[in-house]
Amino acid sequence: MTVAEPAGHDRRPDLSGPDALRCTGLRYYFGSTRAVDGVDLEVRPGEVFGLLGPNGAGKTTAIRAITTLLPVPPGMVEVFGHDCARERMAVRRLLGYVPQQLSADSGLTGRENVALFARVFDVPRRERAARVAAALAAVGLTESADRLAGTYSGGMVRRLELAQALVSAPRLLILDEPTIGLDPIARTSVWEHITRVRVATGMTVLVTTHYMDEAEQNCDRVALMHRGRIRAVGSPEELRAGLVRARRSTGAATDGPPTAPTLEDVFRHYAGSGLDGRESTEDGGDFRDVRRTRRTASRVG
Ligand SMILES: Nc1ncnc2c1ncn2[C@@H]1O[C@H](COP(=O)(O)OP(=O)(O)OP(=O)(O)O)[C@@H](O)[C@H]1O
Ligand SMILES: [Mg+2]
C-alpha cells in the first residue's frame, strides 16, 4: 500500500521519541460552560487511542483544540513535540482530521473531493493524481470515485472523508465519531479501512466514539471523558480489571456469580453515568436521557 505513507515514516511505534499527542491541563471554556476542564493525556506513537464520553463530555472541543481550530495557550497541546499554539502550521502538516460534521461536498465527485484536500494540504502537484487515486483505493472507493458524492451512502461518505484526511499522509489521524449513524456493516467497513492504513503506515489514530464494542475491538487504550474531565485511562482490559478489583475491595462482587464488567460498567463506575448520558439513581433507574441522534443523513445533500 502506498497511500498515506510518509517518506521515512517508521512503521513500528517509536517509544523513544516524543508522544504523538500530549495534552497538559488542557482547558477550553465557552463562557461559563467548562467544555474541557483540565485534561492531561498522552497518546503514544502508533497506537489507536479512543476518547469516550457521552454527549457534551467535551470530546469535540478537545479535538478542535488539538487540531488548532480552537486557540489554546502555549504548553497545553503538543503534537509530536510541536506546540499547537507556537507551531500551528507544523502541527497541521502532521494531522489528518475527519470532523464530526460532514466535510464532503455533495456536488463534487469522490475524486474531486479528495483532490481538493490534496491541494489544500499542499500535496506536490505532480504526485497529486496518484496520491488521490491511492487514497480512494485505500478506502475501497475506486469504482465509485467518479460519481457525485451526493449519490453515496452514509458509509461511503464516511470512507470518502477518511480518504480526504489520508491524502496528506498524516502521522496523527483524528476521527471524531467516524461511525455514528452507520449500520453495523458500514461501521465494520470503516474500521477495516482505518486498520489497514494504520498497519501499512504506522500512523497514530485518535478517535472519539460512543460505541463500546468499537473501542474494545479497535483501541489499544481509551480515556473516559465526562463533563470536561478525564475520569480514567488505560487499555480496555486494564480498565475492566481495575473495576473487578474495586468491586472486590468494596465487597460489591460477593453476591451471586461474578459477572465480567463491560467498558460501559467501567464508565458508570468512574463517571456515575453511562456513556449514553443516563445517570443512575439510587433505585437503579434513569432520570435523564440526553442521547441525541446525530443528524447524519443516510445520504449527502
Ligand atoms: N460553539 C459552542 N458554543 C457554546 N458552547 C459550546 C460550543 N460547542 C460546544 N459547546 C458546549 O461545550 C460542551 C462540550 O461540547 P462538545 O461538543 O465538545 O461535546 P462532545 O463530547 O463532543 O459531545 P457529542 O458526543 O454530542 O459530540 C457542551 O456543554 C456543549 O454544549
Ligand atoms: Mg462531539
TrEMBL record:
Keyword set, alphabetical order: Antibiotic resistance, ATP-binding, Nucleotide-binding, Transport
> Which residue stretches belong to region Disordered?
272-301
> Which residue windows does the record flag with biased composition (Basic residues)?
291-301
Molecular function terms from GO: ATP binding
Q: Which residues form the ABC transporter domain?
A: 21-252
Where does it live in the cell? Cell membrane
Q: Which InterPro entries match?
A: AAA+_ATPase, ABC_transporter-like_ATP-bd, ABC_transporter_ATP-binding, P-loop_NTPase
What is the membrane topology listed in the Swiss-Prot or TrEMBL record? Answer: Peripheral membrane protein
Comp. bias regions, Basic and acidic residues: 276-290
| Annotated Pfam families | ABC_tran (PF00005)
Q: Which SMART domains does the UniProt record give?
A: AAA
Using the UniProt record, give the first listed, main subcellular location.
Answer: membrane
Q: Does the keyword Transport apply?
A: yes
**Family, per the entry?**
Belongs to the ABC transporter superfamily.
Protein name, per record: ATP-binding cassette domain-containing protein
Say which species the protein is native to. Kitasatospora cystarginea
